[in-house]
Amino acid sequence: MAAPLLLCLFHMSSCSVIKWRL
């Protein structure tokens, strides 16, 4: 699950969405 974490760092806005996905 490294990809989602990297995306979170590059896209702080999507970080919330990723957290909800997890």
Q: How does the SSE layout of this entry go?
A:
Elements: H1 2-10, H2 12-21
Task: Please describe what this structure looks like.
- The protein is mostly helical and 22 residues long.
- The chain is 86% helix and 0% strand.
- Helix 1 packs antiparallel against helix 2.
- The longest helix has 10 residues, at 12-21.
List descriptors.
86% helix, mainly alpha, 2 helices, 22 residues
Shape summary: flat
What string, H for helix and E for strand, traces the elements in order? HH
If helices are DSSP runs of H or I spanning 4 or more residues, what is the number of helices? Answer: 2
**Which runs of at least 5 residues are low in confidence (pLDDT < 50)?**
none
What's the average pLDDT? Answer: 65
Rounded Rg = 7 Å
| End-to-end Cα distance | 10 Å
Q: Major sheet: size, sense and barrel closure?
A: none
Class from secondary-structure proportions: mainly alpha
- Estimate what percentage of residues fall within beta strands: under 5%
State the oligomer.
single chain
Number of strands: 0
Helix content: over 70%
